[in-house]
Specification:
Shape: globular
CATH architecture of one domain: Up-down Bundle
Helix content: 55-70%
CATH class of one domain: Mainly Alpha
Largest sheet: none
Oligomer: single chain
Structural class: mainly alpha
Number of helices: 12
CATH topology of one domain: Na+/H+ antiporter like fold
Length: 314
């Protein structure tokens, strides 16, 4: 597709990296208190569902490659957030749990080596992997990342070809699993996740104190300024260095739009805030800032997108 060219496919990876580093640095510069600095990862997240929703409001004249860029960037962003959660906001790592994780990974690899195609066969090692993450003190969501990375992207894998008399499988396992899980994720997991994290309580919000005010300022500036600055600057640097190229039909104004949409943290940022803060005042300030920052980023993105849509391409 639009990202089949490696030079183009590299762009969202580098852009996502910039969209994580700059907001985190901006937050850390504003927050000097050690307790408040625990929230440095809050403005690095992107809510993929809301970002895509705002992009759809702009209209159909948005380049198709931009939609794909946003999806890819948001997915990479989510993976980075999950890794940060696992490494920063999890408890101490237990060796016994890591051994269980290793057993789960080996189970998946063994089934793949044997050429097992049925997705249900991977439920047991997948559950073992999840349980191992939990016992190790790592966030269990990291198990999903590992399973996704272990899922073959080609239809032919294993130690021997399939039985010639069996029905030929042309789709890769990753495509089949994605198609199978999509209804459950779209209509079950995502709404439940949004419902669990959107019920925001601002009880205890007091921005008159220095620490909560700094947390709010760090989150808002990270989402509204840090995200677009990081994404655009990283993209410019990568393109100038010849590491990647803009997809066909995508202009730099579109990359600014991409950065603003990346600043819609909402549920993912609130999720990280719940992990980062035990202090009710800091948590309330962070949630309030996520709502304000996400709303500002969405509004600015919508305005810029509609303005760019009306501007004739050069």
């Amino acid at each position: 597709g639009a990202l089949s060219d490696p030079r183009v496919a590299t762009l969202p990876i580098i852009a996502a990296a910039g969209g994580v580093v700059i907001p985190a640095l901006l937050y850390a510069l504003i927050n000097t208190d050690p307790a408040a600095r625990r929230g440095w990862a809050i403005p690095t997240a992107t809510d993929i569902a809301f970002a895509v929703g705002v992009l759809s409001l702009i209209g159909r004249k948005v380049p198709p490659a931009l939609r794909l860029l946003l999806l890819t960037l948001a997915i990479i962003d989510d993976i980075a957030a999950i890794v940060v959660i696992a490494l920063v906001y999890s408890g101490g790592i237990a060796l016994a749990g890591l051994l269980v994780v290793a057993a789960g990974v080996l189970g998946v690899l063994l089934l793949q080596w044997l050429g097992v195609q049925r997705a249900l066969a991977y439920v047991l090692p997948g559950a073992l992997l999840w349980f191992g993450m939990l016992r190790a003190g790592l966030h269990p969501t990291l198990a999903g990342v590992l399973l996704g990375l272990l899922t073959p992207v080609t239809s032919a894998f294993g130690r021997a070809p399939r039985d010639p008399g069996a029905r030929r499988v042309t789709e890769s396992p990753v495509v089949r699993v994605e198609a199978m899980l999509h209804p459950w994720v779209a209509f079950g997991v995502m709404p439940l996740f949004a419902l669990a994290n959107a019920g925001v309580s601002l009880k205890g919000l007091d921005l008159s104190a220095a620490a909560p005010l700094a947390v709010s300022a760090g989150v808002v500036s990270g989402l509204v300024l840090g995200k677009p600055i990081g994404i655009v600057l990283a993209s410019i640097a990568a393109v100038r260095l010849g590491l990647c190229a803009l997809p066909a039909g995508v202009r730099w104004s579109h990359m600014v739009l991409l950065g603003l949409l990346g600043g819609i943290g909402f549920t993912m940022s609130i999720f990280i805030a719940n992990l980062a803060f035990d202090n009710p005042a800091l948590l309330a300030a962070a949630k309030f800032a996520v709502l304000v920052g996400s709303a500002l980023a969405a509004t600015l993105g919508l305005l810029l997108g509609r303005a760019a849509r009306q501007r004739p391409p050069r």
